[in-house]
């Protein structure tokens, strides 16, 4: 159950969001790569400016060169311009982005030459998800470094894990592949949104044994999530957004089980 916020809690939460800044040691504040990483935001509004071919190629190359378990490279990237996206899905790229990449966890390709994880679909799937996600982040950061903004999507516009089966069919993906997310790329329209509420370091970093979460900090974070969502989506709410996910999650869970454990079915 999502709590209702009093007006004063909502206002206090919004002020905290607006004041939120990355915490960078002053001695490192001018490190260019660190700045790119810390200033990145998920961007959901793009101009019509086209991303040049060489820039998009460099973004894909950053994905190709990402690290992976045993260098298995268990990923595939479906690359789109606006026309190909429209031909494939009958609509514009979400948020009218200029390019998009659907990042796929791919255990099919490796299996043509070796069966690295026989009888261990969960390990195999998890490893592929880990690797493909790292490739996604490499592309995201490379884009940012080249002045191109992006957002990763797993739900909006049937773009990722929650519609994996649909995407698998549309893209003609073989068994052993799972579309995880779409990264939408484009040039940002207007300034970046404020940093969304990030948990403080002491809540997520621990030394030695796991530190249980501090309830007051978590309540505070949730209040910021609710208030921040309302401020940026006047006609919606954090709760109704979660409800949208909940309506899809049952089918997505069933589809995913089928996609991950398909070899059990065949044996
Ligand atoms: C795997 C993944 C899936 C996401 N799916 C969506 C989505 O479907 N729709 C959306 O608007 N944002 C989506 N996001 C963006 C997150 O909402 C965003 O990363 C988060 O709010 C933190 O904001 P920031 O990226 O600006 O730090 C997704 C992000 C990730 C990493």
Commentary on this structure:
This protein has a four-stranded antiparallel sheet, with helices on both faces. It starts with 6 loop residues before the first helix and ends with a helix. The model has no long low-confidence stretch (mean pLDDT about 95). With about 270 residues, the chain is an alpha+beta fold. The protein contains eleven helices and four strands; from the N terminus they run H-H-H-E-H-E-H-H-E-H-E-H-H-H-H. The chain has a domain at about 45-185: NADH Oxidase. Bound molecules: flavin mononucleotide.
User: Number of DSSP helices?
Assistant: 11
Summing up helix and strand content along with how strands pair, one would put the structural category as: alpha+beta
Give the overall form. globular
C-alpha-based Rg, rounded: 20 Å
Describe the strand arrangement of the main beta sheet, using strand numbers.
Answer: 1-2-4-3
User: In the CATH hierarchy, what is the class of the domain at 44-187?
Assistant: Alpha Beta
Bound ligand species:
flavin mononucleotide
**Unreliable sequence segments:** none
The assembly state of the depicted protein chains is single chain
